[in-house]
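Meet our chain:
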Amino acid sequence: MKKRTIALLIALTIVVAGTAGFGGVYLGNVFSGMLASYYENPQAEADSNGPGPGGSSQAADSGAETDLPAGTDVPPDEIAKLYAVSDMNKTAELTIPEIAARNASSVVEIYTESVVSGGRMGQYIAEGAGSGVIITDTGYIITNNHVIDGASKITVRLNSGEDYEATLIGRDSKTDLAVLKITASNLNPAVFGDSDELVPGELAVAIGNPLGRLGGTVSEGIISALSRNIEIDGTMMTLLQTTAAVNPGNSGGGLFNRFGELIGVVNAKSSGTDIEGIGFAIPVNLAKTITEALMKYGYVPGRIDFGAVLVDVPDQMTARMYRVSETGVYVSRADEGSKLQQGDRITNFGGVDVNSIADINELLEHYSAGDTVTIIVSRSGSAVTVEHFLKQARS
């Protein structure tokens, strides 16, 4: 289900229920599960709901954890390939057709299947689609986490038309990156460039699978800006901005420079009736660092799992909808063993007053996995101090 549909269902649930209290129907079994899934994995919807290898299907935002197991038995020599020195001639700029020809077989189409619980419909299979970039000749592929999040099956289609079932090596929701592996050899990996060398105005070429059905599409533009701080689904990301056409399905695809080197992993587009020519990509230098960690460990060491699902109540209208008396950030669900409880309103985090999830996320940047933070919550009208342990996130 799309996010707007989820919001509508939430509102209807509350209105129909007519029960008081934050811990009532709002945090009941069905409703709480829906909301918790959404806030745990805000980017979990398939990047594009176009047809995959098995044809078209109904689409939904499952919000589920990826069902595929992560594998971390990556030989060190495979990781070393990420740092191979490019033999490209940096004095000979390529034409756009030459850039496209050099990288056409380095960019792949990705199709996913997810098992979705659809209420009266029961469970059904939802399909999604995106793009990916081959990074080693032995079949390691980088893509966006939101492309594969919630997938029970991932299929990679090469430029040649061959399909391979992929194994998830690791993923990182914070940077929206994931690494896959297919059983193949003698592939054409993209060559990593240096995103720190980019300047606004230089050529940028995007290759991907827009709309989930137009694999191998090439679009050109320029680097519009560097280090854009963009909030995507509640997470702040520092991204490259480009005018190269980017559409749903391009996510996970490649952004290349005038030498044909990979300089970014496409991951977002700003769109609207009056907005065109604004696309974003994860800088390749960051992507390379995260990719190395995912290949070594299956996750990024030091990432924090907060251990609770939070809900923003930013205004009085929202407070009335959720049947609470005050605005702020509430605990929708806490992990077993946590001293936080459903219905807690977090008022202070580590000595700093907070009013939103964004406030807490900003403060979390100063903590590491394994730390304990002192949190003050409002619980049943009383201020309660809890010591909250920050776990290591595995995705």
Observations:
- The two ends are 23 Å apart (CA to CA).
- Residues 3-17 form the longest helix (15 residues).
- The first strand starts at residue 107 and ends at 117.
- Residues 1-46, 51-65 have pLDDT under 50 and may be disordered.
